[in-house]
Amino acid sequence: MFRLIACCLFFLTLPAPAHGDSDARPVDHFTLREAADFSKQVERELAERGAYIALVFRSGRPRDDLPDGVRYTHAAFWVYGPVTEFDGSQGHGYAVYNLYHGQADPTRSYLAQDWPLDFMRGDAVGEVGVIIPSEAMQIRLLDVLASDQYDNLHQPAYSLLSNPSDLRYQNCTEFMLDVIAAAAWLTDDRTRIKINLDAYFAPTLVRLGWWQRLTAGWFDPRIRLDDQASGPVEIASFTSIADFMLAFELAEESFEIQAGFGE
């Protein structure tokens, strides 16, 4: 059985802190039918490209609300395999697994499974980013996700803007990156993974003023910056993960899909 994980990343809206998109709650901008059509559109695209695993990113906030260089707020591994339909019959399709921060305690994360429709109901822009791992990486990712390494790679301490080279916190895109690193370097030793990422992964930089650094946590307990050095805040994002995977031949391609609502 494929054990697949995804994670949810909420970003700081500049110049003021943002609340981020919620845990897979519907966005009013699109109807349920539009979200369903978009999810099927993405599934068809992934299947046509022969992707057993794909990294899919969507934004729960308008692009104008996101920092420069950040296009998406949520990332998930989508895996193709057997699924049970609503009528109990067996078919094949993509399942989506997520890492979210808690509602009662937003500084702790938990793992949850949902489906492409749930994923798209959180979309606010009608566009997703996709990374297709190389064939070898898809096999390695399946091996990692089906093993006990899954639990070893999860750090429940949650930060909205976690540093991908630091052990203290994790959010969805950092967890995704850790899983990729574990598959690439054949280890679930998080200390070793962080050392390697610090050497080879170029993070996305989010620039915060001194006042934003000082006060961000007052407005949102998910924003913890003690894992960040002075200077720009370092995070993992669609762009930086895609660049990393393509540079080291861990991915075949990255691209974006726009919703064809009017087609």
Based on CA atoms alone, the radius of gyration comes out at 17 Å
- Total helices: the number is 8
Taken as a percent bin, the fraction of beta residues is 15-25%
Shape: globular
- Describe the main β-sheet briefly: 7 strands, antiparallel
- The average pLDDT value, as a whole number, equals 85
Regarding quaternary structure, how should these chains be classified? single chain
Helix amount: 25-40%
Structural class: alpha+beta
Low-confidence stretches: 1-26
**Topology, number of strands:** 9
Written as H for each helix and E for each strand, in order along the chain, the element string is: EHEEEEHEHHHHEHEHE
**Cα distance spanning the termini:** 36 Å
What is the number of domains? 1
Keywords: Signal
Protein name: DUF2145 domain-containing protein
Signal peptide: 1-18
Task: Provide key terms for this protein.
alpha+beta; 8 helices; disordered N terminus
Descriptive overview:
It holds the Pfam family DUF2145. Residues 1-18 form the signal peptide. This is DUF2145 domain-containing protein. Keywords: Signal. Helix 3 (135-145) crosses helix 5 and helix 5 (172-185) packs across helix 6. The chain has one domain. With 263 residues, the protein is of the alpha+beta class. It has eight helices and nine strands. The chain has helices at residues 32-48, 116-121, 135-145, 149-152, 172-185, 190-200, 210-219, 238-247; strands spanning 7-8, 53-58, 74-84, 90-101, 109-114, 127-133, 204-206, 233-235, 251-258. Strands 1, 2, 3, 4, 5, 6 and 9 form a seven-stranded antiparallel beta sheet that branches.
